[in-house]
Each structure stands twice: as structure tokens, then as C-alpha cells.
Amino acid sequence: MAKSGKSSATSATRKKHAKKAAAVYPQEEQPPPPSKDKKLTKQQRAQKKKEPRVKVYIPPVKPVPVQPDPLETTGLAHRLPPELLIVLRSFNKKAQVTKIRALEELQSAWIDKCKKEGEDGALVYVLIDMLPVWLHHVSALFVHPSRRVRLLAAGVHLSFVQISPVRDKILSFLRDLVSVSQIESILGTWCLAAHDIDKSVAGTALKSWIDVFTYVSGPRDQLLLDNTYLPSLVSFTQRTILDPNAVYLYLNPPQPAAPAPPGKKGMTRKEEPADTTRSKADELEESDTDRKARLRIGCLGAIRRIVETLQPTLSDEICSFVAVESFGHSQPNVRKSAWALILSLLSVPKPQLEPLLPLLSVAVLRSAWVDSDTTVHAVMWQPLLKFLKEFPNAWELERAHDYSKDQGEEDSDDESSERGVEAEKLDMDPTATKQSAAYQEFLRFLELGCSGSPLQGYPTVVIIVSTIPSSILASSPTTPPLEALFMSFWQVLSSRALSSLQRAATSAAFLSSLLECLVFLVKRVRNTVIAQTDQVSPTSTATVLFGTGSVEESTGNLVREQIGKVWMHLVEGDLKVEHRAAARVVAQTLIDLREVDMGLFSSAWELLSARLCDAAESHPGLLSAFLKVFYDKFKHLHELKEAVSSVMSTTLGTSVQRCNESLNTLTPISTSHESPTQTNASPVTGIPFLIDMLEQFREGLFEDPHFAELIDALHAQHATLLLHTSPALLLSYLTHRKSPRHCSSVWHALLAGIARQPDLHAAELNAYVRPLLDAAQRGILPEYLKPKECEVDSMVQGLVERALAGDGGEAWSTIVMQVLQSPDNFLSENGYITSLRTISSAFSRRVDWALQNEDAPLGLFEPSLGLITALSRSPPRELPSFRFDDVLCDIFVLAYLLPACYDAQQTHPVFASARTIWEDLYKTSPAEAQAEIRQQINTKLNIILCNPSFRPFPEDMLEMARKPSGITFNLLHDIFPSAREIEQALSQLSPDPIHPSLAVITPLIPPSSAFASASSESPRAADEADFDKRGFSSYARIVNALLRVFIEDRQVAKQNIWALRHFLALELYAQDFISVPGAWNRVFAPEAIHAGLETLIVKVEQIATYVLTSSTSERWREEALAAVLGLGNQPSSSQAATSGSLFSFFVDTIQRARDSDSSRETRIMRNVLQHVFHDVDKEEADRWLVLARKIEAPETSMAIVYSVTNFAPEPTRLDRYRNELAASLLGVPPAKANTEGLLTLRKLVACAPNSESDVVFLPQPRAVNITKSCQQWIASDEDVDEEVVSAITAVFYHLAPILQDMSGAHWELMFDVIENNLEMCHLVMDSSVEVQKMAYHFLALAAKKRTEYLVIEAGVDAEAAVNMDLSRVHLDLLQRNIAIEEAQTGSSGVQKAFKLDIWAVDEFQVECTKSFFDHYLSHALL
Questions:
Q1: How far apart are CA 1380 and CA 578, in angstroms?
Q2: How far apart, in whole angstroms, are the C-alpha atoms of residue 446 and residue 482?
Q3: Which of 236, 378, 859, 915 has the fewest CB atoms lying closer than 10 Å?
Q4: How many CA atoms lie within 13 A of 1225 on its CB side?
Q5: How far apart are CA 930 and CA 921, in angstroms?
Q6: Which of 365, 554, 498, 363 is closest to 441 using CA atoms?
Q7: Which of 706, 770, 695, 769 is closest to 733 using CA atoms?
Q8: What pLDDT does residue 1405 have?
Q9: Averaged pLDDT of the chain
Q10: Which letter does DSSP use for residue 1367 in this model?
Q11: What's residue 480's pLDDT?
């Protein structure tokens, strides 16, 4: 069992085993060793050891001859199938892979097929025939080094047993046909496999073993392990345990090497060096140590099963394996199996174990204390303790063992151990008291901390010590003898054997074991004292261990010595035990000593109490823990409780007195001009012990009235000073005093002292009040600690303002956060609510400011947002909870809308924090509060949408609505203004075009004299209108956002057709602004020219086309026309505004145009008619012309006529209408040319057909009459307005194609009118920037055309000289510089200048200005 290489077997035992091995494996005879007639003395032996040892030649063991294979000797090779023969021959191969394949082939190709055929199949007889070959190889396969081979062999063998005919043949073979040696090998290896170290191999082999063998009488189909077979099995296991290598070689004999071929005569054969490299197969083999361990574990398991099953009469012959190396040197698994065998042996009746007891005593005691493997220890403790308990005389038997008998044979052994030398010294010295080698090893076991297993070993030490006789303890050479035992205990601190990850637990186990042994030994000594006298017998334990002195004195000294050492090592820190754990062990020891004798307790307490009183200043934590544990443990023991109370009273009174004296030497903060953090205070004595005592005893410490009076007076006098010097003592007092009167008085003094420090810096104030704030947050302050008045409300309000201002960094915010998270002990209800409202209002103001100012930093939100985050998660315990519902709207805006205004900082932590707060607070709000919060958010978003001063664009709001925020928006209902409100916003805008020159583009633009807002509107008023940074007004923002919603959801557009009117109105404003970007208006600012207005117009046209052409009714247009003509139902304006009917919208559009007759309404109607007339026929167009003539509003009438002319088929009434208008001009006198004449001319232009169409505008006579009428007006003395001249020019534009083949004075009139217009807008002479901007693109196109003309002329007439010069006017114009305003060029900073040179103008500048002039190409400006 010993771990060392030295065997503990006696000389006789080894000789006997050697004889057995020689009988089984014969060796050559060796010459007998020299006789030892004379025994050497001690000095001679020592001299002999110094001499060099002579190596003795030991010849190698002759190999066992190879057993013949039945396959060759019985002729089976001729009867078995060739395929099976190949498999069986593979068992003779050395390669592991070959054996595995052979076993797998045998199982799958033969045994499994035989099972499928049944027991009547032909394969059964084949398997029966090959059984001798299998039984010949099975022993070697069962002990093969490969686990895979052993597992497959066990499986094949189990399969053989499960086939009845094969099973019967195996039993018959074992009963009658097998030799004794073969039976021994088969049974032994089979049993070894059933107890293999591998569980899967053991489980498979055990099934077949139990199925075939029985230890008691059983059925015929089982083999009884009686005296015929059991000795062979036991003999095999013994031999395997003794020499596993020899047994393994016997089962696997090496193949004989082929002799070298003889060389030629006269020649010498050159010997090649041996190949020292190992093959791959050799590398797969297990080591010699592993093989020995595996075989021994199997044998020990087999013997254990035999012992547990039969419990035979054991003798030295049967169990001699316990005396040799079978306990496993370098083989912990073998030692574990051996200890398990010992446990099984202990189940045998004691009388049967008596013959083995001397041998077992030596083996067990000499092996247990030297094994350092913790896995072996886990198996060792139970059999060891059971053995020592049942056989306490084992110590004496071990000491009585004569090791000198073995020493003579061990002199030549190079590996003789130190313990053998020590045993030899004791045996050879007749004057020395013979010591127990096992006891010396046990002391060494204690020095090493139970050999590495302190947690499991120390609890068993007292049990082990209880089995050691006093004579063994007295054999120690120390005086007194017990000193050696306790010295070994304490030596573990020097050896650092307890230094591990679980040092506290191992040290506690050590201390408990030490003191348990102390109490046990003292009790043993006291129990041996003769009754009623101090004298003891010479053979008593007291005399043996302490001599003839007084037992009380000796035991008292021992107790004082060990208790003193315990306290010393605890104080010095060598013994790393948790204080209360150490105190519990010492307290239990004191109680045990009292039970033994009160004098022993008095001896220990006298020393310990003095040490306790001295530790109040040096080790207050250790002292307080000991006093608390002692007080609890001794509360039912009067004498012990009085002793502890006396020590407590003394130490507490002294500490309070010292603390008071130290505080009196300090300057009170209330009268000092220094800040609390600047007070130069020396350490206050006595405080650490008072703190530890309060933490240990809590309110129980105040049961002593004297101490309670002292500590109350100390805090009442020095409360504010203690907050600075020792806040821990102050908090412990407030926590554990449990007296509202005393604690409240101290608390009010503290608050008053804090309020007197308003000018402290943030760091100083934080350090001053931090202990109180931390205590309040942890909830350790009593609930009855309240402010007496509003002591610190104003101070906290000031701190809140400082924190929100960001002064001092995060220090003020930290203090405010802690105060408001636990306000119950510091603030009144009003003070708490006021502070939170201040934070909320500050946050809301900063959100509003960030919404309108681009320079608002995000760091502005951090103080208030951090406070809201912290306070929302930490509601007060008693004060009314404050909900941040009012500020949730602003938190939502910060979390989801404002990030769009910070493009480069959208991942800023402020936004993430806001989202987190929103999710936490909104989800935890009740349903009613959530509804109110949603309403607030809708109102806020509506304000942001309608107010151009806010930074977020409507597109940002729409994108926000798509994000998962916990709220689902109905955009039209929640965010957008109502239809009535949008209509009201439109009504406040001017219905007139932004510039009269737009009449050049469309004839529906009235003259400037007809503008309704000409007198009330001014450019300055328009400049003062509110626009966002893109240049959109409030109305433009709302309608543009509404347009985006409808573009994304066309169904919403169909359901809310009322919005189409606003889309078309915004389109008109956008078109006018693009055409004349320099004109002022209240819808778009100059910056809007770059805001994608062209895209807006395209989207409006898409929506209008979809809505106006998607009606499912085929007669809705006719019904609408009938309604307008007064032949059907007419919806009211309010119904049209809210109705989703296309009919209602159409009728309302016409009615609005007829009622107002404004340019905006008529143009809206014109755009609607453009889409509505997509499938109108001539008959319906004729009815629309009737409507136009019926309507008295001229602008509306012209808009309908214009729509019919341009978008509907030509009706018959239209030609008659043109002729009527042309004829009516003859009756207009010059005096009415500016009124009636102008209107007639505009009507003619409105009904003029497209120049590309086939429709004839007027007959030539009518055209001539028109020119005559115009000539009369111009030639008269009446002043003709420029508006009339412009209208005449527009009419001439349509008359010129009619009159082109007709000469007359009318042409002279036309050229005069054109020349007059050119004088009015001469591009060279007019220095106006606006004129030059409008003419730029036109002139560029003219220059391009001129260039093309010159190139063509040069190509056509190659011989003639072509003049490539431009005119003087062109050259003069192209050399000018024009400064374009910043807003109109898209540039930033200084205004840029460029030349009007189309061959050198930068492409970027041309593209930037192109949009200004796209619509000016049709401006004749004539």
C-alpha cells in the first residue's frame, strides 16, 4: 500500500512468493548466497554501507515456450471455412489493428449471422468446431493492452455464451477437456476482464461471467466455483498481483527469433547496429507501469468479489497480496482498489481476520500516512477509520513488528527507505524505547497538513488519535511526549501546507482538529486519575504522558500553552481563519474544558481574557467577533456568561472614554473657519472597536444601560464632528440604537450642520455628506429619521440649479442625484416636489431651444437627462412618488425626432439614454396616463410641423413615425392640422400670381391692375414671413408633408380627396416661384429654389392624375356638370371640404372659382379640368362651353374655355364663340380699350387653338377686322395701357399664321407693336440685375442659334467668304459681368461673378442658373 518503491513485506513472505514464482516459471539454479553465521554489529553495518556496493549479476528469466495453436495441432485448419481460418490466424498477429479487424469480422460475419439463422443453423456447428482456437486466444485477448481489443473480445465472448449450443460446449470444455493451467488462465483472465479498469469492458465481461459462473449451487448450465475451480482462480490472481509482467509474458509469449544464417568459411559477418527506433505498433502499447496497474486493479477487484460473496476463511496464503507492492507504487488507481479491498475484508467476521491482523496492521498503518494522492485519500478514509476502530491494537502490532528480520536481505537493495533505517536503529539499540514507525509517519502526516487533504483529513485526526494507545504516544522522544504531537500540528504553518485556494476552510479544519485533540487528550488523562487523590499509578496514562507531577498543573499548562498559541497565531495572521469561525471553535473548546473540569476553563480563560483586553486597539475586528461568539455560546452558562460580560464591560467603557477624549481635542466644525475636508484631525482612538462591536451585537449592545448612556452622550455632543472623523460609527449608532428620541436629536443636529456649509466646493461637499447619502441609498437609515423643518430644502434647490447649469462637472449632479434618490431622510415633501419640477422644466426648455437653434450642443441635455434617468428608477420610500409624465413628451422628441437634426451625431449617448427612459417610463405608465402622453406628443408634433422656426423637417417627422417607439401614429388625425385649419391657412395667402409677367406663359394670368392684394401686400411684408431653413412657409411644410404621406399610401389619398386642392395650390405657387424666383411671396423664400420644387411638382401631378382618373363611376362628371349648371344637387362647401367623393370635390372646385373668380382658384380649376377632360367627348365639351358662357365670372369663364380648347375635342360652339368675340371687338371704342377691349382680347387668347393643331383660329376677314380694331385704339388719342399692348401682341401671335399670305397695313401695325415692346425691355440698355438674369438664358440660346447658322452658311457656300463676327450689341452684352445673389446661385460666402460667354461659362454655374430661366424662353417680352 505504500507509495515508495520499497515493499513492506517480510523476508519470509518474499521468499515464499519467490518459491511459488519459481515453481510456475522455472529459472536456472543460482549459487546460494553466502551464509551469515555471524551477525554484524551496528558499527560494522554502518561501515559496510559506506563501502561501494558490488553489482550482482542476475541472469534473465528464460522465456516461456509458445503454446501450440489447436488450429495446427488438431487439424481444424482443414475443417473450418477458409474465410474463418483467415480470421482465426489473425489472432496470432502482433499488430493491434489486425486483431481488431479480426474480432469485428468474427462478430459480424459469423456470430451475428449465426444468431440470425438460429440454433439449428449450420453456422452453430462451425462455431463449436472453432471453440478450442478461441479459448486458446481468449486469455491473451482479455489482457491485451488495447481497450478496443479487450472490449471486442468481451463482446465476442458474451455472444458465444448467449448461443446455447456454444455455451454448452464451453462448459463441457471447462469441465472435462481443459488442462489445469489452461483452466487457470481462462478463469483468471475472464475474471480480470469482468473487473477491468475500463467500465465498458468490465460491464460486458461481467455479464458473461455472471451468466456462466456461480459461487453457490445453481442450475446445470452454470459452472460452480467450488474447491475444484476456486483455488485456480485465487492462485492466478495472486500470481498476477505478485508479478503481473511474468503473467503477461506467460499469456503472450514472445515469438522465437530466427537464427542468423551461417557465414562463408573464412569470412566474418559484420554485425549491424540494433535499430533503436520504435515502430508505430510499439508506440501504441502501454507502459510497463500502466500494464502492471491495470492487471493488479482487475485482480484486486476479483478478490474483492470473492471475499464479498464467499467470505471464506482467510489465511496468509490466500491474502498474501496485501503485503507486497500491490498497493501500487506510482499507481494511485491500484492503491484505491487496494483500499476498497480492505473495506471488503472488514466485512468478514473478526475471528476470520485475526490471522491476518499483524500483516494488515503493518500494511495499513505504514501506507495510510505516506500517501499524498488526494484521489486515494477520498477512498482511504472509510476503510482506514473502520479498521482502526475495530482493531485499535493495530498500532501495538505494528510497533511489535520486527523489521530487523528483513534488514539483512535489504542491505543490498539500492532503494532502501529512510523509515527502514530508522526502524533498524530502534531495533538495534537495546537502551532506546522502541518507537512506532507508523506513529512517526503519522506525525509527519500532520506536519504536511494531512498529506495534501486537509479538508478531508483533519476531521478524522481526533478519531485516529483516539485509537492511538498511550504507550505509542509515550514512545515519542520529546518530554512531555504529547509535545511531539502538538509540535507536528503547528509545524503545518511553517510548511505552508495550508496555503491553497481554500485556505480559510483548511485553516478552520486545522484549528478545530487541534483543539479537539487537546480536549480529548486532557479528558483521557483526567479519566485515569485515581479517585479522590492527586496521585496516579505508575502505569496510568497521566504518568506515561506527564510524569509523576500534578495532573491538574500539567493539563492546565498544556491547555494554556495551546490556547495561547492559537491566539498568538490568529493575531499574527499565520492562522488564516475567519474570525467568527475561529471564535466558535475556541468557544466550544472552552465549554468542553469546563465539562471536563472548571479548573481547566479557568486556566484557559485567565490567559485568554488578558489577551482579549489587550486587543481592543490592535485587533478590534478579531476581538469583537470573539466577544460576540462567546456571548452567544455562553448565554445559558452562568459562570461563562459573567466572565464574558466582564470583559465586554471593561473594553467598551475604556474605548468610549478614549474616543471622547480624542474628539475633545479636535476643533468643532460649527465654530471652525475651515471646511470639513481641511480639518487637520488626528486618528480618533477607540472608534474601530466600537464600530465592530456595534456591527456584531447590533441593538443588543445597548442592553447595557451604562454603555448606552455613554454612547448617547458621545453622539449628542460630537455628532457633526463624528460625521467627518468617523461616519461609520455615526451610521452604526443611528442604525442600531433603535431609539427615535436619541437618533432624531442626532439627525437634526447633522442636518443643521450640513445646512451651515452652503459655500463648499462640490468635491468637499460630496466628501462631507457622502456617507449619509450612501447610507440612505442602501436603506440602512431608520424611517423615523426625518427633517425637523426644511433645513436643507433651499440648499438642495441651489444644488439642483448648479447641477443643471453644468458648473463643476458631474460632481453637483452626483450629489443631487443621491439626495433626490433617497429624499425621505433629507427633504420635506414640498422641497422634493419643487426640485423635481425644476429639473423637468429645465429639460423641457432645453428641448424647445434645441428644436429652434442649430448651435444647441447635445451636452446641454446630459445633466437634466441623467437626473431624470436616475430619479425615475428610484422612487422615494415614503414621500409621494413623482411621475415625469409632463416631460415624457419632450423625452420622446429628444429620443426620436431631434437625432435627425444632428446628422453627424445621431449615435450620441444622449439619444440612446432618452430612448431608454422613454421605453421604461411609458411602458410602466397606466393606460389613462399613456393616452394623455400620446395627446401631448401629438400636439407637440403638430406645433413643430406647422411652425417653420423649428429645425426638424416634416420628412423627419414622417420618418420618426415609422420607427418602433411604442406609439402608433395616425398621421392625418394625430399630427396634421384638420382640413378646416389647412383651408384657413390657404385663405390667408394671396390668391394672385407672384408677378404679372407670368401672363406670357399662360393667358389665365390677369393683368396686374386686377390683383386683389396689390395694395395690401408688400415685399417687406413677405420678407418678414416665417420660413424654415429650406425656404418653406408653414403652409408649404404642411402640404408638402401631406403630399409625402399620400404618395406612400394612395388609398389614403383617395379617402381624403379634399387635400388635392391644396396640392394643386402648392403646385401653382411652386411653378410661379420657379418662373420668377426673384419675386416675393409668402409661400417660398429664395432658398427654396434648391429644395427640389421640380420634384414636388411631379409628385403633385402623379397624385392628381391618380385621384382624378381613378373613379369607378362613369357618370360622375356629367352629374357634376349638371349640378354646376343648376340641374342637380349641389354640395355645400363644408361637405366638399370633408367629403371623400370626387363628385363633391369637383363641384366645390368650380364653385370656389366662380365665387372668388381669383387667379389661384381658376388656375386650380384649370389643372383639375386638364385631368378630368382626358376622356371627354365633343358633346360633353359643348356643354362645358355652355357653362363657360353662362358663368358671369370672367376669369372662371376664360379658364373653362381655355381647358376645353386645349384638353377637350373641338366643340362646334367654340368656333362660333371665337367669331363672336372677334366681331365684338369692332364695337369697342378706344375709350373702353383698357377695360372691355382688354377682356375681349384675353378671351380670344384663351380660346385660341394650339398652333400645332389643325383647327383654324379665325377666318382671314375676322383677323383683318381685329387688326383694324387694334389700330383704331392705338391711333386714337386715348392712352392704351401696356397690358392692352401685351394682349394685342398675344393675339397677333395667333393671327400671324392666318395673315401670312395676305398683304396689307396690318403687317406694319404688327411690327410697330413688336418694336414698341423691344423698346420697353431692351437687354443692352437696361442695367437692372433682374432683367439681365431673366435674359441670360435667352441670350445664350440666341448665341447658340447664331453659331449654328454661321456654321451652316459656311458649309453650304464654301467658295464665298462668310463673316463670322457677332454684332456689336452681342459682343457688348457678352463681355459684361453679372453678380448673382447667394441664394440664387447655390454658392455660399462671397458672391461670384462670371461672364456671359457661352463658350467659356463654367458648366456648374450654367446648371445652377438653368432652373431660373427654363420658363423664360417663351417670354417674348415684346
A1: 88
A2: 14
A3: 859
A4: 29
A5: 10
A6: 365
A7: 695
A8: 39
A9: 78
A10: P
A11: 74
pLDDT reported for residue 536: 45
Beta bridge partners of 1379: 1393
Query: What digits encode the pLDDT tens for the residues 1320-1376?
Result: 755 555 555 555 665 666 666 667 777 777 777 666 655 666 565 666 655 555 555
* 829 or 318, higher pLDDT: 829
Dump pLDDT digits (tens) for 725-745: 889 999 999 999 999 999 988
| Calpha distance 1172→1170 (Å, rounded) | 6
Cα 838 to Cα 804: distance, rounded to the nearest angstrom:
9
- Whole-angstrom distance, CA of residue 437 vs CA of residue 425: 11
Which residues does 331 contact at the CB level (< 8 Å), separation at least 6?
Answer: 289, 292, 293, 296
Q: Which three cell numbers stand for residue 956?
A: 423627419
Q: Nearest to residue 1251, comparing CAs of 1205, 1294, 1203?
A: 1294
pLDDT class for 570, splitting at 50, 70, 90?
A: very high
Q: What is the dihedral of CA 746, 751, 755, 761, to 10 degrees?
A: 100
CA atoms within 13 A on the CB side of 1397: 12
Nearest residue to 659 (alpha-carbon basis) of 625, 693, 631? 693
851 to each of 847, 950, 953, how far by Cα in Å? 6, 5, 11
d(CA 863, CA 1329): 53
Q: What is the C-alpha to C-alpha distance for residues 391 and 381, in angstroms, rounded to an integer?
A: 15
Count CA atoms closer than 13 A to 1285's CA, side-chain side: 21
Separation in Å, CA 1041 to CA 405, 945, 946, 971: 112, 9, 10, 10
Please give the pLDDT value at position 591: 93
Q: How far is CA 690 from CA 621, 686, 856, in A?
A: 10, 6, 55
Range in 214-228, 419-433, 883-897 the model is least confident about = 419-433
Alpha carbons 1145 and 1110: distance in angstroms, whole number: 14
Those residues whose C-beta lies under 8 Å from the C-beta of residue 273, and which sit 6 or more positions away, are none
**Burial of 862 per CB tally in 10 Å (0-12, 13-18, 19+):** middle
C-alpha cell read off for 1283: 397690358
Task: Give the mean pLDDT of 1035-1043.
Answer: 92
Q: End-to-end alpha-carbon separation of the chain, Å?
A: 127
Amino acid 377 reads H
Q: Which three cell numbers stand for residue 827?
A: 427633504
Contacts of 282 (CB under 8 A, 6+ apart): none
pLDDT digits (tens, 9 = 90+) for 320-346: 444 444 446 678 888 888 888 888 888
Most confident option among 168-177, 668-677, 680-689: 168-177
Q: What is the pLDDT of residue 566?
A: 93
